[in-house]
Design brief:
The structure holds two protein chains of two kinds. By secondary structure, chain A is mainly alpha-helical. Chain A has a single domain, classed as ABC transporter involved in vitamin B12 uptake, BtuC, CATH 1.10.3470. Chain A is built from 14 helices and two strands. In chain A, strands 1-2 form a two-stranded antiparallel ribbon. In chain A, a hairpin with a 2-residue loop joins strand 1 and strand 2. In chain A, helix 1 runs parallel beside helix 13 and helix 3 packs across helix 12. By secondary structure, chain B is an all-alpha fold. Chain B has a single domain, classed as ABC transporter involved in vitamin B12 uptake, BtuC, CATH 1.10.3470. Chain B is globular. The two termini of chain B are 42 Å apart. Classes of the chains: A mainly alpha, B mainly alpha. The interface between A and B is large, with 46 and 46 residues.
């Protein structure tokens, strides 16, 4: 157990190190980037991605994926904003938004966990349906003229220069992270992703855990949608499209293994900061925003390839170690088959 | 051995369902025609043939993505390669001063390289195909945008004014009725059919999808096979990009970005198993036409805005996968059998 703990610690440390080096290099080229205000802004701007990344992290922990979160963000942003524009109370609007996220999460969870449909295909289908529904709901128009108090809320500072949104998100992420690592039920997510059949054998409700992961992913995306609308102030029908991909990239940057069973929410948050800083860094380096997609693609591919190569190497190393241990213990037998995995 | 016999049974059941599945698709297609033409008399078979250009790209790409999915992979970058192909043709012709056919060849090579890049990472580095092609879709659409900035024409306008010989690719009509795009589609179906179902290469593609390790042990260079399928799908996307550019008469970097959902839907609806090892070109072709007719007929016959078209396509995809999951579940099939028996008794 202590070995696994050590590895996860190292994984987080490496992404933190990457963040520090990245910021350091950008700071060397343009020292304006490293001013406290600029750094705090980096944190504040990452709030939407932090929520999305932590949400999708639950599904990735269990070894699945959820590509519908961008669309969930879009539809909750559209619905909540429209309700606020029409003058409903904020509690009702926020509740409706969260319920939408949870219901979509339940639907995804049902398809993936209970029907056993490959998660990418199922959530891709949900993604299409929700995207189309946003057009139906908004009739293709922008949602504008959000109440001023709502958009001003995004500027509200709670601790120092950190916005209330980021502070609350941070507290929530730390709490969720503690639940994941310290409680029995929290550990189910990682266990299911690490070895699904093993988890079933020791009595972990695999399907329920996956279902819960999708619900959490939906709810996190819904909250992200509400905060998105408060920060941006207007909602286009394409709001949040492609965000699911960036959230996945953030998770990978944060050291979460896409085959499941490895990683932490703290890592996902660090990844989200890197991911949301890309366009900001481009501005400080004097590139146009046209480079956004290219840089994101290069970053994503580089990281997954390095991650996969490192994992392959460690798998081979582990296998060799186990083999060595076994051959040291057992007398060599002729024709004995070695079963690994 | 027990496993062996059950495997044979499993295979024969797959064969019969594939046969049945293609019949189902044909009925689906026919019923679409009937419903749409009843709803609006403007919807006719001849008009459908003439306006195939709206759906041809999806049909072409999904044929090639079938190869990828038979090996158990997935390709969500094909849509962005369409835009890249288009802008490469435009820029190398207009700003590079190349012959138009030279530009076309360059674009096919670029697309094949894009496929090879992703295929290499999937096959030789063991990265999950979804994530690689996801990164690829970012990267290639980003590169397409950057290339469009090189051009002297502003990117939102698109590069136009191609020579007639090039636009004839999409505008030529055999006997004045059958469009060249339909001919290209049929030719590609035949080529892909022989490649996947009648050639040694196709057999190895299937074997890699059924059992990666077994294929490796039987002397197939499975990594090369996996990589080659991504190259094929890149080439398929470039063919679609060429046809689309010729039809539109303009080269733009962002055409094709909305194709991902319809392509995957077409392949899955066509009976290809997303876990690999099963699939057919005819199934994919039929399914692509079913989706194409849906995307063409709904706006024409029911006045549904084209922006809403993701909903029916998404529902179709989910209905197919849910239906299949329920059908393969012994509990539900037993339930339905009971229901049928009760009915026949009553």
């Amino acid at each position: 157990m202590s070995l696994i703990k050590k590895i996860t610690k190292i994984r987080e440390m490496s992404s933190l190190l990457f963040l520090v080096i990245l910021f350091g290099v950008v700071g060397l080229i343009n020292s304006d980037f490293l001013t406290p205000t600029s750094l705090i802004n980096c944190l504040n701007d990452s709030v939407v991605f932090t929520l999305l990344a932590c949400g999708i992290a639950f599904t990735i922990f269990t070894g699945e994926i959820d590509v519908s979160i961008g669309a969930i963000l879009g539809i909750t942003a559209a619905v909540t904003s429209t309700m606020l524009v029409n003058g409903s109370s904020w509690i009702v609007a926020v509740m409706v938004g969260i319920i939408i996220g949870a219901v979509i999460g339940i639907f995804n969870g049902w398809g993936v966990a209970y029907l056993g449909i490959p998660s990418l295909i199922f959530t891709l289908g949900t993604n299409g349906i929700i995207r189309g529904s946003i057009y139906v709901y908004t009739k293709g128009a922008w949602v504008e003229n959000l109440p001023v108090w709502f958009t001003k809320l995004s500027q509200f500072k709670l601790v120092g220069n950190l916005t209330a949104y980021y502070t609350i998100t941070l507290v929530a992420v730390i709490a969720a992270s503690l639940i994941l690592t310290r409680t029995r039920k929290g550990k189910y997510f990682i266990a299911v992703g690490d070895n699904a059949s093993g988890a079933t054998l020791v009595g972990i409700p695999t399907k329920k855990t996956k279902m819960l992961a999708y619900i959490l992913s939906g709810v996190f995306a819904a909250v992200a949608g509400i905060i998105y609308s408060s920060r941006i102030g207007f909602i286009t029908p394409t709001a949040g499209s492609g965000y699911e991909m960036r959230a996945i990239a953030a998770c990978v940057l944060g050291g979460i293994s896409l085959s499941g069973g490895l990683g932490s929410l703290i890592g996902a948050s660090i990844g989200a900061i890197i991911m949301s800083s890309v366009s900001r860094i481009l501005v400080f380096l004097g590139f146009s925003s046209d480079y956004d997609n290219t840089i994101t693609g290069v970053l994503l591919i580089t990281i997954v390839v390095v991650d996969a190569l490192a994992q392959n190497r460690s798998a081979i190393k582990n296998r060799r170690q186990r083999l060595m241990a076994r051959t040291a213990l057992l007398p060599p037998a002729k024709g004995e088959k070695q079963h690994e995995h | 051995m027990n496993i062996n016999s059950s495997l044979i049974q499993f295979r024969s059941s797959i064969k019969s369902t594939v046969k049945r599945w293609e019949t189902v698709l044909t009925f689906l297609l026919l019923s679409e025609f009937i419903v749409f033409s009843l709803a609006n008399e403007k919807f006719t078979f001849a008009r459908m043939l003439l306006s195939i250009n709206d759906i041809i790209s999806i049909c072409i790409i999904s044929l090639f993505v079938t190869f990828v999915m038979v090996t158990g992979g997935i390709d969500i970058q094909a849509g962005s390669i369409v835009g890249l192909t288009s802008i490469v043709i435009g820029v190398s012709w207009q700003d590079g001063g190349m012959n138009i056919w030279g530009a076309v060849i360059v674009s096919v090579i670029v697309a094949a390289l894009c496929g090879a890049l992703s295929g290499f990472f999937v096959a030789y580095c063991g990265v999950q195909p979804m994530i690689v092609t996801l990164g690829g879709s970012f990267l290639f659409s980003g590169i397409a945008l950057l290339i469009s900035k090189i051009s002297s024409t502003e990117s939102y306008k698109g590069i136009s004014g191609f020579p007639d010989s090039f636009t004839q690719i999409a505008k030529y009509k055999l006997f004045g009725v059958i469009s060249s795009q339909l001919l290209i589609f049929i030719a590609l179906i035949i080529i892909c059919y022989f490649l996947l179902h009648k050639s040694k290469y196709g057999r190895s593609v299937f074997l890699v999808g059924v059992n990666h390790e077994a294929s490796e042990y039987s002397g197939i260079n499975s990594r090369l096979v996996v990589m080659s399928t991504y190259i094929l799908s890149g080439i398929g996307a470039s063919i679609a990009g060429i046809v689309l550019t010729a039809y539109l008469g303009t080269a733009k970097s962002d055409i094709g970005v909305t194709f991902t959902l319809p392509i995957i839907t077409a392949v899955v609806l066509g009976g290809t198993l997303s876990t690999g090892g099963k699939g057919s070109i005819f199934g994919t072709a039929l399914a692509a036409v079913v989706i194409g007719v849906l995307r063409f007929g709904l706006p024409l016959s029911f006045k549904i805005s084209t922006q809403y078209l993701d909903i029916p396509v998404g529902i179709l995809l989910l209905a197919v996968v849910i239906g299949r999951a329920l059908a393969s579940n012994p509990k539900t099939s037993a339930f339905f059998n009971k229901l049928l028996r009760k009915k026949s008794v009553g």
